[in-house]
Amino acid sequence: MDKNSPSLSRKYHNKVPIAFRCDNSRDLNRIPSDLNDFPIYGGLFRKIVIKTKPLRFLDSIKITPIYDSLKSNGRLNIIGKVNSKYVDTLHRQEYIIKGSLLNKDSVLISFNFSFHKDEFNISIDSINNLKLWSPSNPFLYDLKLSLSYDNKNSDSLLFRIGFRYFKFLKNGPFYLNGSRLLLKGVHLHEDHSGVGAAVPYEIHEKEIKMIKKMGANFIRLAHYQQSEEVLNLCDKYGLLVWEEVPWSRGGLGGTIHKNNIIEFLSKMIEQHYNHVSIIIWGLGNEIDLTGDFNYNNKDSIKTFLSYLNRFAKQKDPYRMTAIRRCDFAKYIPDIYSPSIWSGWYNGTYRDYEKVIKKRFYEVNHFIHAEWGVGSLYGRHSTDPYLNENDSLLHGSGEEKSYSQLFDKGEMRYSKDGDWSETYACDLVDWYLHTIEQWNWFTGALYWSFKDFATPLRENNPIPHVNLKGIVQRDLTPKEIYYVFQSHWAEEPVLHIYGHTWKNRWYDKLTDSIPIKVYSNCKAVELFVNGKSKGLKNFDINKFPASGFEWKLKCRPGNYFIKAIGHTESEEILVDSINFSLIEKNWGKPIKFKIHKEKISDDILLVKVELVDKKGKICYDARNIVTFDIAGKGELIKNLGTVNGSKKIELANGVAEIYIKLNKGRSVVAVMSKVLKLCL
């Protein structure tokens, strides 16, 4: 839960002692389960705020703005109570609440309400001239409430609220404020490089701004109630929200376990009810995956989930409920998402349309939550594809219990692919190009916006990091960020693929290599070493890159590539890259070369290259390397990034890490199986 607000009233020597005891040792009844694919952090990682309250103060405020599209006006319901438990209230006084709804600096409405009980219920009807909140125009009103009694002001609160209405059509799309809106979503964990779950406000805001700039309008806060700060930012910048209770994996236990789930759901709805951005309360994730409890009673899970669904509806009848991945309970919540990963955990990405059309009509309201692809920043490939004619590769597109493993099951890209940004861009491009042609579709949410830490996945290219992010764990954009922009962003975008691919190669059987430009411009012209290779027009029906692909003949040399984009408003965009093109003629990798680059007086960047006996870099090498250091210096490690990880796979034959010298001498070692230790 986001908040726990104990009363600090007992004094000792006129002071209030405060102590915190934190314990994240294994407890099967605690949620979320330790079996999850994300860390269960211990300690305090959100803000601690001590507030002084008056003897009588406003509490448990629940604000419901409702817009009537037929009357084109709105109404406002405000319920709450006066907390006066430290006051003798045998002789109740008259309370007065003064309120005002402000449109920036002008007052839209004002009201007074008097009452004698601690609870109050205020309704204001027929509010005219309202501006509706939406992702494209996240208009918020200020609602000010002040409490007084006995002619004295006692408390005042300020809320930022919005008016909007929405509907999920049965077996159809989503409508917001009367217009169809394709839900373009991502997921976000509370995790960041170097700080774990203790994410500061500045990083939260940067995340939300990047998500908006990418063109998304929807976010699933996985898999737990997140900070009030995040919800405030979603309200402010315009992101629709699916927020969920942390019942994720582990199965269903007894009374204590169930009560914990109910309490978390209750607190989440109570604490975040007033956020206009929230449209869905999530009741669970992957609740069919057991392990904490020695049984998997489907009937018990369905019975309990039905109770949760009714409970959520009683606390908030204005929003929808949803779960992801539990097929035997898919009819219980309002919205359901199966686990579909065509082209990653199962099948090929070209299977996606077939799989979605099969599952879409099985429930009344369908959203595809969690699709994606793992990629290592800076790894590129001239041939990222498996043999897609192999029948072992084709399947239902749905994730299986062993899909995340590297040593079990049928051929699949998560196990047998190269984890390159090249393949990732093609998969994302195909999904988006396909979805945008479906006028009947609700929407989908990519997993995940950021790479994030996990206690699992020790065999990933960066061990214990889920690498499906659109950006690295430190928010450095991967190439797929620009693919999303080319499909989703309102602002013009132009990006040539492969800014980090400085050395490209070809073999003797290859005649040409592709140059892809991801853009939403109406037309793009490509120049190679100053010569035009032609102008192409944007066409969403074409793949890849909406038609912005050129072929470059394979001739060794240095290349300067420039793209010029033309927008509908005649704006000109320019992007350029440099790279060398070489023939693939290196031999077996036998040793490492180490280079160093001074970043500052006390920071070095150490770069290691895997070479053959002639010293040629083996650009297709993917060996696992481990860095170590002796002396006064220290590795800047455990960041979960390509230059902040002690153990990592090579990206195109190269790996690097930063070192803090601590004003002394050090020896750096690079180790890999089979190869010699390099110092």
From TrEMBL:
One of its GO terms (biological process) is carbohydrate metabolic process. The keyword Ribonucleoprotein does not apply. Residues 60-164 form the Glycoside hydrolase family 2 immunoglobulin-like beta-sandwich domain. GO terms for molecular function: hydrolase activity, hydrolyzing O-glycosyl compounds. Residues 169-488 form the Glycoside hydrolase family 2 catalytic domain. Keywords: Hydrolase. The keyword Nucleotide-binding does not apply. Residues 512-570 form the DUF4982 domain. It holds the Pfam family DUF4982. Belongs to the glycosyl hydrolase 2 family. PANTHER family: BETA-GALACTOSIDASE, BETA-MANNOSIDASE. This is Glycoside hydrolase family 2 protein.
